[in-house]
Structures are given as C-alpha cells and as structure tokens.
Design a protein that fits this description.
The structure holds two protein chains of two kinds. By secondary structure, chain A is mainly β. Chain A contains one helix and twelve strands. By secondary structure, chain B is of the alpha/beta class. Classes of the chains: A mainly beta, B alpha/beta. The structure holds siroheme, flavin-adenine dinucleotide, iron/sulfur cluster and FE2/S2 (inorganic) cluster.
Chain lengths: 118, 844
C-alpha cells in the first residue's frame, strides 16, 4: 500500500524541460495537464518556482513574462501587465491580500526541471 | 643662437607659461630657446579635474598639451627628469639624468606637494596622497581590496578625495583636525550643514580629531589612534592635509624663502635673483601661497610678459581673488569676498534651512549699502550674482535677505506638484485627485509609494501617474519633516543618478556586479529595468544578452509592446514619417499574412497589433529583410522624430525638415534613457510637426535651426523652452548630443525631460550654461559618450532573428508548440480586435 501511494506521487511529477533551457532570472510557461504554469529560475542556480501563469488582474496568461526578484527576501514576480507582485513560494499576491494564484512544488533531478501538478 | 630660458616643472602653470611665450611669438620671444624639465612621466595635464580620472577619464583625456605642440614650437622637454640643483653663480641647472644646461633666465614652476603630518606609521603600506595620476592609479588599485578608507583632511581636496573613495565602493571616513569641514572656506554654520549633507551620503565625518599613530598589521594599515583616545579601523588612508610649496631647489641655492616656506616673488614674479622667476603654487606673494590654478595662470602670464618686454610690461601680479564655488560630493559650496566678516563693523545675514540642508550667509558693510562677501552651502545658485555684487560694488537692495531667500516668482520655471490645485486629477485611470492622495498620505501616515497605491488606488491602472504620485508623496513627507531618501528601491540605497555614476566610473557591465558591490537582495521590477537602462545608456550592449535578459521590462524582453491580452504590437522605425509606397505595401502584406490589426499611430508611423509571441521573430524576419528596423516603441529609448513636409514641398518651408528629422532619428535611434525620448522637426514657424511639445524639438529659421528642449505632450502637457537659436547643422547636433547625455546622467528613473527640467535648479539659464557654455566642463565627455552610442548602434531585432538561441525564447510554452488558447479575436470595422470578456465566455 505504501508502495502504491508513493508511486502515485511520483507520477504527478512531470518533467518540463532541462535547467539550461531557462535563462537565469527569467521565467518560462509550460502546458502541464492542460494548465498554463509559469516556472521561474532564480539566478544561475537550481532554485525553481512554479505558479499559475494566469494574471487575475489583467486576466491574461502572462505571469511567466514578469520580472522576478525579492521583497524583503521573499522571492516574487511582478506581473508584466499592471505590475502586481506575487509570492513565488505561496502564490499570494503581495499587493492585495484577497488575491492569490496557485503554487506548485518543483525540483531539479539530473538537470531536468520537474513540477508537481497534483 | 637665442638665449636659454629654462622652466623647471611642467605642471599646469609651467605649461601655461610656455603657451604664453609661444602664442606671443613676436620678435622678442623668438630669441629664446625654450627648455623645460618635467618630473612626472607625462606632459602637463589638468590637475584640477584629476578626480574625473575615477569617472572614466584617461590620462590622455586630461592632457593640456596638444600632440606635437612642443615639437612644433621648438620647446625642448625632458620628460621624466627632474632638476636636482641650481648653480646661480654659473647660471647652470643639473638634472637627475645628468643633463646639465646653462640658463639665461630660469622659471621655477615646481608646484607643491601634499603635506603628510608627522605621525608615527605614516609610511605604512596602504597610505596614499592625492596629487598625481600615479597617486590615483595606486589608490584605485589598492582600494579594490579595501572595505574601509579614511581621508585625513576635510578641506576642499580631502572631500574630493572622499568622493573618489566612496565611488570606489569603499566605506569612507573623513578625519579633520579642525572642528569643522572646509575650515578655510566656510564658517561653523556652513560647516555643520555641509557635514550633515555629506553624512547623508554615507560618508562618516570625524572633526576635532588629531591622529597620533597609524597601527599596522602584517605591515599594512590597520587602524588609526587619535589624541582623544579613540581609534578607527581602516584598510587604507589618504592624506590630504594641505599642501606645501616645493621650494627645496630654491632653498639650496639660497633664494629668499618665506618663514613658512614658499619662494618670495615681487609683482613681476621675480625671485630675490632677478634672473629667476617663480610661479604657481611654489611662489609666495606678499606672504601668500595661492593653492588655486587661476592665480597661478595669472603669474605665468605676468612672468612671460615681463621676460618679453622686460622694462615695459604693465602686467603685474597684485594678488588674486580666492572666491570659489565647488561641487563636492554633489553638494554646492561657495565662499566669496570677506566670507568671515573680518571687516570692522560688518554685519551678517544668515538663512539656514535644515530641511533642505542649505546654509546661506551674506556679509554686508556697516551702512548696509554693499555686499562684502558670503558663504553658500547646499545651494550655490546665487553665487554668480552675489560674487558680481562684491566684485563690482553693486549697491544692495532694500532687503538684502531677498538675495538668498528662495525665489517665489514664476520666472524660475518652477512648476512642481506643489503648484497644482487640490482638485487636480492625478490618476485618471482611477479618478484620484491630488487632494485625496495628499490627505491619505497625511492621515494614514503613508511612507512609501506601495502604500499610497494600496490606499488610494492611484497608480494601479496604467501606472502612468506614478511619477506624479511619487512627487506628491515626497512633497508631503518633506512638509511633515520626514527625511526623504531618493533611494531607488529596497535593493539599492542610491538614486538613479548615483547608480549611473557608479556604473560608468567603475565600468560595471552587469546587474549582478552592481548588486553585489552596491546593493542587497535579489532585485525587483523597479531596480532591474532601471539598471538595465543605465547599462544600455552607458555601454549599449545588446539588451537580450543573457546577463541582461531577465532585467528587461516585459516590452524590452520581447522587443515589442505587450497588449492587454498578452499579445504584442509591432512598430517598425519609419524615420521622420517618410515611407515609400513599397514600404507601405510590405507592411500591409505582412499584416495581412499574420492577420494583424493596423493603425497609424500618433507619432507618424504604423502599428500592427495582435501578434502572438511566437510570431514576432517571423514578422520581424520579413520586416528586416525588407529593410526595416526596430522602432523601439517598446523601449525607454528614442521613439520618433516627427517631421512636417518642409521646404521640399511646402510653400512656406525654409529648411529641409524631413532631411533633418531623418538625420536626427538615425543618429539617436536605440538610445536608451531614463524615459522615452521624442522629437520633431518643423520646416518653419507654423510648427506643423509640434516640435515644441517634444523632449527636443527643432524649428527651421531663415538662418538655421532653433532648438527647443524639455517639452511634453502626454499627461501634463508642457511647452518646450528655447535653448539656442539659429544654429547650423553641426552645432545643432552637438547641443542635442550634450543635452541628451546630460539628461541621461542626471534624471531620475522614469522621469521625462519636462519633469526633470522642472526640478532643475536654475532652469533654462542653467541648462544653457551647461550645454552651451560648458560650465561644468563635461561637454567633451558627453559628446564622447554619444559618439560611442552612435558607433555601436545595431538593430536589436536584426541581432535577435540572427541568433537561434534568442529566437528560442519566443514561444508561449517551453514544452509544446501550442499557442495561447486564450487569445481570441472578433472582427470589427473589417479588422481583428481582442474579444471582450463577455464575448470570450461564448467563444472559448
Ligand atoms: C500606439 C500609440 C497610440 C496610437 O495608437 O497612436 C501609443 C500607445 C501607447 N502609449 Fe503613447 N502612444 C502613442 C503616441 C503617444 C503620443 C504622441 C506622440 O508621440 O507624438 C504621446 C504624447 C507625446 C509625449 O509623449 O509627450 C503619448 C503619450 C504617452 C504617455 C504619457 C507620457 C507623458 O510623459 O506624460 C504614456 C505613459 C508613459 O509613457 O508612462 C504612453 C504610453 C503608451 C503605451 C506604451 C501604454 C502601454 O504601456 O501599453 C501604449 C502602448 C501601445 C502599444 O502597445 O503600442 N503614451 N503617446 C502611439 C505610438 C506612437 C509611436 O509610433 O511610437
Ligand atoms: C585633486 C586636486 C583638485 C584640485 N582642484 C582644484 C580646483 O577645483 N580649483 C583650483 O583652482 N585648483 C585646484 N587644484 C589645485 C591646482 O591643481 C593647482 O593650483 C595647480 O595645479 C598648480 O599648478 P602648478 O604648475 O603650480 O603645480 P603643479 O600642477 O603641481 O605642477 C608642478 C610640476 O612640477 C614638477 N616638478 C616639481 N619639482 C620639479 C623639479 N625639480 N624638476 C622638474 N619638475 C619638477 C611636479 O612633478 C609637477 O608636475 C586641485 C589640485 C588637486 C591635486
Ligand atoms: S494609446 Fe495612449 S492614450 Fe490611448 S489608451 Fe493607450 S496609453 Fe492611453
Ligand atoms: S493614471 Fe494613475 S494608474 Fe493610470
């Protein structure tokens, strides 16, 4: 039983692309299980974050094209349309408490970027 | 064979002397063999601007001697050789390299040396002085590995030196023996304002400190001990504790010296030996040494004239005015006339503004009829006029204090946010008035722009009003007495102007390097594009090269303007608005093939809307092949130079406005700036191209071109101001080069020229001084910077489509070639447009 459970979890990890395909400090968008997911790479590292690509303010699918950075140490992306910021770890909008987008776990295995889209 | 005239020292004054001898090469001076000894490894250079070496000037830029000038004029120069003895009896000099020469007349122009107080440990590794190019090279080299640096001496040179250390990225301290900074030029009140201003820049000031010992660790400077028992850890020390005349040669050949040194001279600059003259900083006239270059130049002229017309010269040296105006660490300091009110019965008027950090003092005579002198700190704009009043004994107005009170008249081109009524609509997206914003700031004690946005909604739409909202915030905070820092964001405790300076002076080429050396954290959407723009202005590197890619604002990142649905628009450059029928057909065909919406823009060109990100390289491939290039409609860069049809067709046109606008557009295309730049050229005074609403606008006249600057359309329209009239093509371009680069250097982030101008103290007159008269002495630099831009320009789109690695970024999904299913369009007036939200629900 335990075995099956962990099997189920591993199947939810989807390989997206190689790490090299993401230029340090930029984002890309992936189509995973029919969802648009924005994936960001911090610096020249394996630090990767994934959140929804949908920008609730402009209603456009564009968050992957925002500028990433930090606010008081919290990694974040600014929407390219009207510049609202989103916490990359939680998906919480940092400029409006009522708004958030989904965030997804990520990992890098053998140079491949993987996202868990359960 | 003429007589030998030997000049010892090829510094600023020695060189001026030789120039004077040569330029008046009449019968008399042709009789001289001019010979000079130059101890330094290079001919005379501009010591006054030595510090600009740190902002990127090379030794060659600083030279005062035109190449070939000495050879052409038969001046024999011994470079890197110094005179070691003077034999007055045999009229002979001997140099270190063994050159021995007889002289008929001798000129000593040996300058001075930096005084290093006799402190234990003063020779330890890590101690420096600040006088020659070699000194600066040594400081720059050593400073690279230092965290902390101390300048000993808080005078004029010391503060200049502190600025240099600070720009090297070293945490800087100034140690001054006297109780205040610049003790020679300013009084206690001025000194304390100056101190505050400099401390605000992050430089620590320690006054009334006398250093007793320099303690080393492993042979290198480690800390300083002071007489009051305190100490200061440091990695390097620069001594700038005054200068001493280089009178050692004069001393050994027994010329008369002053009690505290200096070669005594008369009004013809002759020493106690009639055949020997002394000029410049080594000379002592009526018990005074002049540590400034202007009096030295005057001495050089007096001595040269006297040598030529021995008995008839009427050029005397009778002392010099020591009035000075300087900008030290960005702070104005001026001191003129009887600054310390030493005249019996004189009275002082002092206006000190702690909020603005300014100090202004007037010294007037006992009858209150004349100005005797004064001190200005923090705002030196009145210096020119006040100095004139002293020099020319201009009678004082009835209320002398008006001379230093802030001007309230409209003539000063002051049109800041404070002049707007409370009802003015600041944010049109969300209809928020000035009154609403200001009261929110006051009542809810808002401190940053984020909070203002959140509370008032102002600035949360198109973002276009953010600069105005920021100004309101600053204004309110200032009124509330809160110290306003011009920091870019939480990652950089510097203003844009300071960052620009750091990038240029330290030749920083990536954001990471700047962040690592001068910032903290990881950056954000404020500092990244601002720095990307600075890097592009300074080095003009291709903006999508990997270290820069992630810094670019969305539009720059994909070299196109993002639209509300995430699609993009495409605007090719159409210089001057002139386009061939074939060009029109190409654009039309491309729009047709990719199904793009087309529109003539407000700036005389054509926009194609609705391109998907993956289509952009394909569209641009076609455009580039047809000879088009990027229009930079997406960049904070030059947009267009609009034109009217001009003299070619129009019956009133007096110049070829289309030709000029194309020339200007091609010259400045791709130039990145704090904000976008727009221009126009009109062929006559009817002004059909609306040049007076542009950042720089040109209007043809019978005699050439009138140049207008700092106009704005957009949110707060403002007419441009006339900078110069009736210019020829070449001068027009020269002035525009200077103007643009000066703006790029000094403006805040996202500040159009009009907004920048409104904050520029001194208004258009000041701008004229800088651009036309070169009052800051930076025009050569500005022109060189622009020349670099023009030479290195390359079309970004061409570079992009030629590089497969760059094209790879232009796709919606990284893992499939699908396109964004959310881009949906409907037809209207025979073209496509994005579907509205209601239409989408039906269509998707
Ligand atoms: C396309 C165009 C409207 C049109 O259909 O005609 C346009 C479109 C935009 N303008 Fe504009 N402006 C256009 C001409 C103008 C003009 C007229 C001109 O240039 O002669 C002005 C007034 C002149 C001026 O700037 O002084 C103008 C003043 C603005 C402003 C206000 C600037 C200001 O200083 O107040 C903004 C907001 C900003 O830049 O912060 C703005 C911003 C914008 C933005 C970039 C807003 C945005 O971020 O999306 C629009 C981009 C649309 C796009 O994707 O292409 N646009 N805009 C025009 C493109 C001109 C071109 O060929 O490059
Ligand atoms: C950093 C800095 C900033 C300054 N800023 C200003 C300013 O803003 N305004 C201002 O008015 N002044 C300023 N000054 C002062 C100004 O530079 C001097 O007043 C000016 O250079 C004096 O010229 P000089 O020819 O007398 O001396 P120098 O320019 O020093 O020239 C003397 C030359 O003689 C050489 N020499 C000495 N002995 C011998 C020898 N025995 N044989 C051969 N050569 C010899 C020296 O090596 C030197 O090259 C500044 C100085 C410095 C260092
Ligand atoms: S094109 Fe210019 S005026 Fe028109 S909506 Fe956009 S920003 Fe506003
Ligand atoms: S005018 Fe304020 S956000 Fe658009």
């Amino acid at each position: 039983m335990l075995q099956t459970a962990s099997n189920q979890q591993t199947t939810q990890w989807i390989t997206v692309c190689s790490l090299e395909q993401i230029i340090p400090n930029t984002g890309v968008c992936a189509l995973l299980k029919g969802k648009q997911i924005a994936i960001f790479r911090i610096g020249n590292t394996e630090e990767i974050y994934a959140i929804c690509n949908y920008d609730p303010f402009s209603k456009a699918y564009v968050l992957s094209r925002g500028i990433i950075g930090d606010r008081n140490g919290v990694p974040k992306v600014a929407s390219p349309i009207y510049k609202q910021n989103f916490n990359l770890i939680t998906g919480q909008c940092l400029d409006n408490e009522a708004i958030s987008v989904r965030a997804f776990p990520t990992k890098v295995v053998d140079g491949q970027v993987m996202v868990n889209v359960a | 064979m003429g007589k030998n005239l030997v000049v010892i020292g090829n510094g600023m004054v020695g060189h001026r002397f030789l120039e004077r001898m040569i330029e008046s090469n009449d019968g008399a001076s042709a009789n001289w063999n001019l010979i000079t000894f130059c101890e330094e490894p290079r001919v005379a250079y501009d010591r006054v601007n030595l510090s600009s070496f740190f902002s990127g000037k090379s030794a060659a830029d600083l030279t005062l001697v035109e190449p070939g000038f000495y050879q052409d004029n038969n001046v024999k120069i011994y470079i890197g050789d110094k005179v070691v003895s003077i034999d007055r009896a045999n009229k002979q000099v001997v140099s270190q390299n063994g050159v021995s020469l007889t002289y008929d007349k001798l000129v000593i122009a040996t300058g001075s040396y930096p005084f290093v107080p006799p402190i234990k440990g003063q020779n330890t590794e890590g101690t420096f002085v600040y006088r020659t190019i070699e000194d600066l090279e040594a400081i720059a080299n050593y400073g690279k590995n230092c965290k902390v640096g101390v300048v000993v001496g808080g005078g004029l040179l010391g503060l200049e030196c502190a600025n240099a250390l600070k720009n090297l990225g070293v945490q800087t301290h100034v140690v001054e023996f006297m109780p205040r900074l610049m003790p020679v030029q300013v009084d206690d009140g001025g000194g304390s304002v100056l101190r505050k201003r400099i401390e605000d820049l992050g430089v620590s000031i320690h006054t009334s400190k006398s250093t007793t010992e320099i303690v080393s660790e492993q042979g290198k400077v480690h800390k300083m001990l002071f007489a009051d028992g305190s100490e200061l850890q440091t990695d390097m020390i620069v001594f700038s504790a005054g200068i001493r005349p280089r009178d050692e040669l004069a001393k050994s050949c027994e010329l008369q010296l002053g009690e505290r040194g200096g070669i005594v001279i008369n009004d013809f600059c002759q020493t106690s030996d009639n055949d020997i003259y002394a000029i410049g900083e080594c000379a002592l006239h009526q018990n005074r040494i002049y540590g400034l270059v202007a009096p030295g130049y005057k001495m050089a002229e007096v001595a040269a004239d006297h040598l030529r017309d021995f008995h008839f010269s009427e050029n005397f040296f009778t002392g010099a005015d020591m009035s000075t105006k300087l900008k030290l660490l960005g702070v104005d300091v001026a001191s003129f006339g009887d600054a310390f009110a030493k005249t019996p019965g004189s009275k002082e008027i002092v206006i000190q503004n702690a909020v603005e950090g300014t100090y202004k003092k007037l010294v007037i005579n006992s009858e209150s009829t004349y100005l005797l002198g004064g001190i200005l700190v923090g705002d030196g704009s009145a210096y020119g006029m006040l100095h004139q009043m002293v020099q020319n004994q201009i009678p004082l107005p009835q209320h002398p204090e008006d001379l230093i009170l802030p001007q309230r008249t409209a003539s000063k081109a002051s049109f800041g946010v404070e002049s707007l009524p409370d009802t003015a609509q600041i944010c049109s997206c969300n209809n928020v008035s000035k009154g609403a914003i200001c009261s929110a700031i006051r009542d809810q004690k808002l401190m940053d722009i984020g909070a203002v946005k959140q509370c008032t909604q102002a600035g949360t739409g198109c973002g276009g009003c953010v600069p105005l909202v920021t100004d309101l915030l600053k204004d309110e905070l200032k009124k509330a007495g809160v110290e306003v820092k011009n920091h870019l964001c939480e990652h950089f405790a510097y203003s844009r102007q300071e960052l620009y300076h750091l990038v240029r002076s330290q030749k920083i080429i990536t954001f990471d390097e700047l962040l690592h050396n001068h910032g903290k954290g990881k950056g954000c959407e404020i500092c990244k594009p601002a720095v990307a723009s600075i890097l592009a202005s300074a080095w003009n590197d291709y903006i999508l090269n990997p270290p820069h890619t992630g810094l670019q604002d969305t539009n720059d990142a994909f070299l196109a303007n993002i639209q509300k649905d995430g699609s993009y628009s495409v605007i090719p450059r159409i210089p001057g608005g002139e386009i061939t029928p074939d060009g029109l057909i190409t654009i039309g065909q491309i729009a047709k093939d990719f199904g793009l919406y087309t529109k003539i823009t407000g700036a005389q060109r054509i926009d194609m809307f609705g391109a998907r990100v993956d289509q952009l390289p394909h569209i641009w491939k076609r455009l580039v092949d047809a000879g088009f290039e990027s229009g930079h409609a997406y960049g904070k860069a030059l947009r267009t130079v609009k034109s009217c049809v001009g003299s070619t067709w129009c019956r009133f046109g007096v110049q070829d406005s289309v030709g000029m606008s194309i020339k200007l557009e091609l010259r400045y295309r791709g130039l990145r700036a704090p904000h976008k730049l727009k221009s126009a050229v009109s062929g006559c005074t009817r002004e059909c191209a609306e040049a007076q609403s542009k950042d720089f606008g040109v209007i043809a006249t019978e005699n050439g071109w009138n140049l207008y600057v700092c106009g704005n359309g957009g949110m707060k329209p403002q007419h441009a101001q006339l900078l110069a009239a009736d210019l020829d093509d070449e001068t027009l371009i020269k002035y525009i080069d200077r103007f643009l680069m000066f703006y790029i250097r000094t403006a805040n982030r996202l500040e159009r020229t009009a907004t920048w101008f409104n904050k520029l103290e001194g208004g258009i007159e000041y701008l004229k001084e800088v651009v036309i008269e070169d009052s800051l002495g930076i025009c050569a630099e500005l022109e060189a910077e622009m020349a670099h831009h023009v030479e290195t320009y390359a079309c970004e789109w061409k570079a992009t489509i030629e590089d497969p690695a760059k094209i790879a970024r232009f796709r919606h999904f990284i893992n499939t070639d699908d396109t964004d299913p959310n881009l949906v369009y409907v037809e209207e007036r025979e073209q496509r447009r994005p579907a509205s939200q209601e239409e989408r629900t039906v269509l998707i």
